[in-house]
Design brief:
Shape: globular
Structural class: alpha/beta
Order of helices and strands: EEHEEHHEEHEEHHEHEHHHH
């Protein structure tokens, strides 16, 4: 059965993409499950990091299950499949917790876009990356021409999207798309995540939002979140709330 499962290894949340019969291709149900898991993780005070990995040792995720979208009309494909997937991948990219993608196998199309939505990536030496959408008459729809292209040199991105060429783990490391190559990608990801234990979760969250603001990852929301956090920590905020609840005029001090 296809699924995206959530488990916990101490303070590390592990999201496992599971549809091995179809090389972990993503279905509507899997996207919905991912959306729900991300909401729970974002509100968790016990989670310091998230790892995303696929089942098996052949594919991390080969993309979107064509049987799920192949019969959709152009309007349905754009309005439902592409926009919903884009929204959920955006939610992963903007998660308050640091995320690590453990590329245990090939990542094609939507699978590569899923990996790009994580903060850093580790990759098995046997895996490859590709954007094969043109071979079935479509284009990347879950940020493959947007977020992914911010992470790759333009010529490399064009090589993948226009010419359909696969990128090896060695080359992905060379262009900075992955942090390291490892035989045991889950172990490597957990080793990286372990560095977050003892680090201030709030400082990490703020640093991530600041970086996203700098690189254009939902800049507006990042700026407003940081500003709201600063205002929310003020004495004026406590005074304003108390005044409202007690139906009196606030006495702000600027503190």
């Amino acid at each position: 059965m296809s699924a995206i499962n959530l488990s916990n290894d101490g303070a590390i949340a592990v999201l496992t993409v599971s549809n091995e019969a179809k090389l972990n291709a993503l279905t509507t149900a899997m996207l919905d499950a991912l959306d729900g898991h991300l909401g729970r993780i974002d509100h968790s005070t016990d989670t310091v990091a998230v790892i995303v990995i696929g089942v098996g040792d052949t594919a991390f995720c080969c993309g979107a299950d064509i049987s799920e979208w192949g019969a959709l009309s152009p309007a349905e494909f754009a309005r439902i499949w592409v926009r919903d997937g884009h929204r959920i991948f955006d939610r992963l990219a903007r998660l308050s917790k640091p995320t690590i993608c453990a590329l245990n196998g090939h990542a094609f199309g939507g699978g590569l876009e899923l990996a790009a939505a994580c903060d850093i990536r580790v990759m098995t030496p046997r895996a490859t990356l590709a954007l094969p959408e043109a071979k079935v008459g479509i284009v990347p729809g879950w940020s493959g021409t947007q977020r992914l292209m911010r992470l790759l040199p333009e010529p490399v991105g064009k090589e993948m999207a226009l010419f359909g060429r696969r990128i090896s783990a060695e080359r992905a490391l060379g262009v900075g798309f992955i942090a390291e190559v490892a035989e045991d990608v889950l172990g490597a990801a957990k080793h990286i995540a372990a560095d977050l234990v003892g680090v201030s979760p709030r400082a990490t969250e703020i640093a991530k939002a600041m970086i996203h603001g700098a690189v254009g990852e939902d800049r507006g929301a990042a700026i407003e979140a940081l500003g709201s956090a600063a205002a929310g920590a003020s004495a004026d905020r406590d005074e304003g709330v108390d005044a409202f609840l007690n139906k009196r005029s606030p006495r702000f001090t600027g503190q």
